[in-house]
Design brief:
By secondary structure, this protein is α/β, with parallel strands linked by helices. The chain folds into 4 domains: 166 residues, Substrate Binding Domain Of Dnak, Chain:A, Domain 2, CATH 1.20.1270.30; 149 residues, Rossmann fold, CATH 3.40.50.2030; 228 residues, 3-Layer(aba) Sandwich (Rossmann fold), CATH 3.40.50.2030; 33 residues, no CATH class. The strands form 4 sheets. The chain has a 6-stranded parallel β-sheet. It has a 6-stranded parallel β-sheet with strand order 13-12-11-14-15-16, sandwiched between helices. α5 runs antiparallel to α9, α10 crosses α23 and α11 packs across α13. The termini are far apart. The relative contact order is 0.12. The mean pLDDT is 95.
């Protein structure tokens, strides 16, 4: 029997996506949603029960078949498959970090003149982590370019160092570092852990599931505390540490009267130059000469998150909206670099005037134009790409831009959160800890990850975030999950009035922050690790990340990067939930037991795969309340809060004088 094709409303809960899926149906155009409906997922592979690691297979361990040709058990096969996926995810994020380290090196040595050190304070901070001296023998500050060069070289050394372990591990709480050493999973270098994990999964090597999964954690930690953390730090050094800006999100940010250019992917080196070129007065005048009012830049996926939090460039959408952006007919050029780029973009672009341009030496797509990016000529290449986009504007046909967009305030780096809570001289996470201790904030949820075309687009994000806010749980987000919340309108300070419980609302009113904090792109999950580490060392919430009333989750995950992120968060002590399915190891009860019971006893964190949205919320709240109880904190009681703050004060000031005294002082004089 043929699979039922979903209606647009069943495929997505995003109004802009629904409108364009209706357009795709009318035009009989294929999208990732229709392909997902047409293709059945392999039930054997989805459970981790198919092994194709040698030419004696593939071996499908189903029914009464419990061992492969070589004798590998279900647990071994499932663990190996999970390990290989994590190694790919760790490689993707870490290679991103390596590329940025090379860019910093080129900038510091004068070979990439369009880049420089935009945040010298962050450079000095990172130099301290990497044991790079910032002063000479006389105690004088060394030149910034010298420090930047040595920081870049020290960062590159972290990928293949000969001895020792990753330097950034010392940024974790002392108790967490002790756990890593006791269990033997402290990563030695980024690349070594990836190679060793892949080596272990070769036929005839590691054949004990728990042992394979130990190295999986070690590899993932090399990503989270190594490659990804370096990527975030160096991005901040080169492009500036994010702080809140105002912007907008969803496909309605595209302009009928402007040249629309979309940047898509994950590497900020190109997108930052495209931003600069799009603001060039000469190119703006050139666009006007072609009949446009100007140039509108917008982003998809994590390139969008990079540019929105630093430059305020609006978000066009998340992963599942990349084809839909072209379907508007209003996009002149989509510029892509690395990761999460669908090959379906090329045939979609062929049906319109849109040019799809690949730019990374690591990525080519059949049917796309390839213009390889070179940091030594960064702005020149960016200007040429923008000019090509302008030349396409007169060829535009009928457009279908949904009138759907939401305001947002992104840019909450951990540095800014410190500043927001304590000011320039007294920046601290103490107020956040105190709010959790008092019960105004019940706990924290890191809601991150991808979209998945087999799920109801954005629906899990919307439901889970709504329920968390209602229960006074502060939500921090990165990646496509952050874009989902931005489109929903969760990322403005005003959203606290509509969605937050009484305690969280008071905090948001006092500090002036949204109840959902945009913390960046996928690699920026290390910002969340940094915040959790600071909370643990600040005091009052235990001594380790595993003590904090917090949960990490990726409700609509789909990529191997998400598995790496989940694993390094678990290895850092967090409870992590991956949603939307029974998970890639569901065929092995033993592997599921290791990831929950064994990991929790061994490292204080655990990983669960939970399909149902209500069950995700239920287990999240149960975990947060258990951690509160373990810390000896008062039971969550929302009735204590909601009588202070701006809203209450406005009500009080409208009362007659005697009633005002009664309201404020209980009748006292």
């Amino acid at each position: 029997m043929a699979k039922k094709e979903r209606t647009p409303e069943e495929a997505s809960c995003d109004a802009a996506a629904i409108a364009l899926l209706e357009c795709a149906c009318q035009l009989d155009m294929e999208t990732c949603f229709s392909r997902a409906d047409a293709l059945s997922a392999c039930p054997i592979g989805s459970q981790g029960l198919c092994c194709k690691n040698c030419a004696m297979g593939p071996c499908r361990l189903t029914g009464k078949t419990e061992r492969g040709v070589c004798g590998a058990t279900i647990a071994t096969v499932a663990a190996r498959n999970f390990a290989r996926a994590v190694s790919v995810g760790a490689s993707a994020h870490s290679d991103h970090g390596r590329g940025l380290a090379y860019t910093l090196l080129e900038a510091a040595t004068g070979h990439a003149p369009d880049y420089g050190v935009k945040d010298p304070v962050k450079l000095i901070e990172v130099a301290g982590y990497l044991d790079v001296p910032t002063a000479d023998e006389e105690g004088e500050r060394r030149p910034i370019d010298e420090i930047a060069k040595e920081v870049a070289l020290a960062a590159l050394a972290e990928f293949g160092k000969v001895e020792g372990e990753l330097l950034n591990l010392k940024r974790a709480p002392a108790k967490r570092q002790q756990t890593w050493h006791e269990v033997g999973i402290a990563p030695r270098s980024v690349d070594r852990e990836v190679v060793e994990l892949l080596h272990r999964t070769h036929v005839g090597n590691d054949q004990e599931a728990e042992h394979i999964l130990d190295q999986t954690m070690r590899c993932a930690l090399g990503d989270g505390w190594g490659g990804s953390m370096l990527a975030t730090d160096i991005s901040d050094i080169i492009f500036g540490t994010p702080a809140p800006v105002r912007s907008q999100a969803n496909l309605g940010v595209l302009r009928e009267d402007m040249v629309n250019i979309i940047v898509h992917g994950h590497a900020p080196t190109l997108s930052e130059m495209i931003v600069a070129a799009s603001l060039d007065p000469e190119l703006i005048e050139y666009a006007k000469s072609k009949g446009a009012a100007g140039i509108q830049l917008a982003g998809i996926c994590c390139t969008a998150n990079e540019t929105v939090m630093r430059q305020g460039v609006p978000l066009a959408g998340n992963f599942l909206q990349q084809e839909l952006a072209i379907l508007t007919g209003a996009v002149e050029t989509m510029i892509v670099d690395i990761q999460c780029i669908m090959q379906g973009l090329a045939p979609m672009a062929d049906k319109f005037h849109t040019e799809l341009i690949t730019t990374s030496p690591k990525v080519k797509i059949e049917g796309a134009t390839h213009i390889e990016f070179d940091e030594s000529r960064a702005l020149e290449i960016a200007r040429n790409i923008v000019r090509r986009a302008i030349d396409l504007f007169p060829k535009r046909g009928k457009t279908n831009i949904p009138d759907v967009k939401s305001p947002m305030v992104p840019g909450f780096s951990h540095e800014y959160i410190d500043y927001a809570l304590g000011g320039f001289y007294r920046g601290s996470l103490r107020p956040l800890n105190d709010a959790i201790i008092a019960g105004r904030i019940r706990g924290v949820v890191a809601n991150i990850g991808c979209n998945n075309a087999r799920l109801h687009h954005d629906a899990l994000f919307r439901h889970i975030v709504t329920e968390c806010l209602k229960n006074d749980i502060l939500v921090v987000e990165t990646g496509c999950g952050a874009i989902a919340s931005a489109k929903q309108g969760f990322m403005t300070p005003e959203a606290a009035m509509e969605y937050a419980g009484p305690g969280l609302r008071e905090i948001c009113e006092t500090v002036g922050i949204p109840p959902v904090l945009h913390m960046g792109s996928c690699v920026d999950n290390c910002r969340i690790l940094t915040v959790l580490s600071q909370m643990a060392t600040e005091g009052g919430l235990g001594e380790d990340i595993s003590d904090i009333p917090a949960v990490g989750m990726a409700p609509e995950w789909m990529s191997e990067k998400a598995l790496s992120i989940a694993t390094y968060c678990v290895a850092s002590g967090a409870y992590v939930i991956l949603g939307g399915s029974d998970g890639p190891v569901s065929g092995s009860e033993e592997v599921l037991r290791i990831m929950t019971e064994v990991w929790e006893s061994k490292i204080g964190g655990k990983l669960e795969f939970i399909k149902d949205a209500e069950e995700i919320v239920k287990r999240t709240i149960e975990h947060i309340d258990k951690k509160r109880a373990d810390l000896g904190l008062a039971e969550y009681d929302p009735s204590q809060w909601g009588q202070s703050g701006d809203r209450r004060m406005a009500e009080v000031l409208e009362l007659p004088f005697e009633e005002r005294l009664e309201a404020v002082y209980g009748g006292g004089k």
